[in-house]
């Protein structure tokens, strides 16, 4: 075995642990940071929407760089083909973006299905005579998961003497969801100018959300085969490469300039085909009108 291979794995593990210890605090706060304290606005916004608002963008990048280093080292050891190292790095970068987008999609879908019930609890509380802040606290006790955590933080802010308007803004930032934006802005308006029409507004919003859920779930079910086919089509050629790499003549062929060119062209075509298939199977994302 080449001496470099002997030290590659310990070196990779040491780098990964070192980066993790430097950039990841031992006690990670789950409370999302304000946007002004984050170094990369786009990545910070994506992490917030994915439900990882307590993770600093630098920490996220450091973690993924550590994992990428390990993957590259293992790839070079298992498949001693030099051109695969930069291809593995590019693949890990694309995979990182894909992980965040998938997490955002799953979280948006989960929250979208939970909002009709939350709106129903808000309407019931408002109709029974509760104020806006009391309605949010009551609805939060019956809400699932992340929505309940946001409402509990809202309640803590009120107990600390924070104004209702500022606590609602913090709640909107914590939830980081387009439907939550509309609900919170409706509650904020009702708190400022009176909420006589709030039950009717919430009822209309609830109807709209339920209609959107029905349409999106039907489209997701119909287009799921496109996503499955794109993933299988992108992975299949590289599985074949891994299987054939057990033969010495295959390694010798791919270690030539022509073999390296074939792998690079294959990687480019794989990425292009996967992007096209994913674009065909992706629903348009609604923008957050009241994200500020």
Structure description:
The protein has 292 residues and is mainly α. It has eleven helices and no strands. Among the domains are: 1-78, no CATH class; 110-212. Residues 1-11 and 16-39 have low confidence and may be disordered. The protein has helices at 3-23, 41-49, 57-78, 84-127, 132-142, 145-159, 164-175, 178-193, 198-244, 248-254, 257-280.
Q: What are the low-pLDDT stretches, counting only 5+ consecutive residues below 50? A: 1-11, 16-39
C-alpha end-to-end distance: 57 Å
Number of helices: 11
Helix content: over 70%
Q: Helix and strand succession?
A: HHHHHHHHHHH
Radius of gyration: 24 Å
Most strands sheet: none
SSE map:
Elements: H1 3-23, H2 41-49, H3 57-78, H4 84-127, H5 132-142, H6 145-159, H7 164-175, H8 178-193, H9 198-244, H10 248-254, H11 257-280
Helix pairs in contact: 1-3, 3-4, 4-5, 4-9, 5-6, 6-7, 7-8, 8-9, 9-11
Brief summary of the model shown:
With 292 residues, the protein is mostly helical. The chain contains eleven helices and no strands.
Properties at a glance:
292 residues; 78% helix; disordered N terminus
């Amino acid at each position: 075995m080449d001496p470099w291979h002997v030290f590659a794995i310990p070196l990779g593990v040491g780098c990964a642990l070192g980066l993790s210890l430097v950039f990841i605090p031992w006690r990670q706060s789950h409370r999302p940071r304000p946007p002004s304290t984050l170094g990369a606005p786009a990545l910070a916004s994506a992490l917030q929407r994915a439900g990882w608002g307590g993770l600093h963008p630098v920490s996220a990048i450091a973690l993924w760089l550590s994992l990428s280093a390990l993957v590259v080292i293992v790839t070079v050891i298992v498949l001693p083909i030099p051109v695969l190292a930069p291809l593995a790095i590019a693949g890990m970068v694309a995979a990182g973006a894909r992980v965040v987008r998938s997490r955002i999609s799953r979280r948006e879908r989960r929250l979208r299905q939970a909002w009709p019930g939350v709106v129903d609890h808000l309407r019931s509380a408002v109709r029974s005579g509760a104020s806006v802040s009391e309605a949010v606290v009551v609805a939060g006790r019956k809400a699932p998961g992340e929505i309940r955590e946001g409402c509990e933080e809202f309640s803590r802010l009120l107990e600390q003497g924070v104004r209702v308007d500022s606590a609602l803004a913090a709640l909107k930032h914590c939830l980081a969801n387009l439907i939550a934006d509309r609900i919170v802005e409706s509650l904020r308006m009702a708190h400022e100018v009176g909420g006589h029409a709030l039950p009717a507004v919430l009822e209309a919003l609830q109807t709209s959300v339920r209609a959107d859920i029905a349409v999106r779930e039907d489209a997701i079910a119909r287009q799921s085969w496109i996503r499955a086919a794109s993933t299988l089509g992108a992975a299949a050629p590289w599985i074949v490469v891994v299987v054939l790499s057990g033969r010495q003549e295959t390694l010798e062929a791919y270690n030539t300039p022509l073999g390296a060119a074939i792998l690079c062209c294959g990687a480019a075509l794989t990425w292009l085909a996967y992007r096209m298939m994913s674009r065909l199977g992706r629903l348009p994302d609604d923008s957050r009108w009241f994200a500020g």
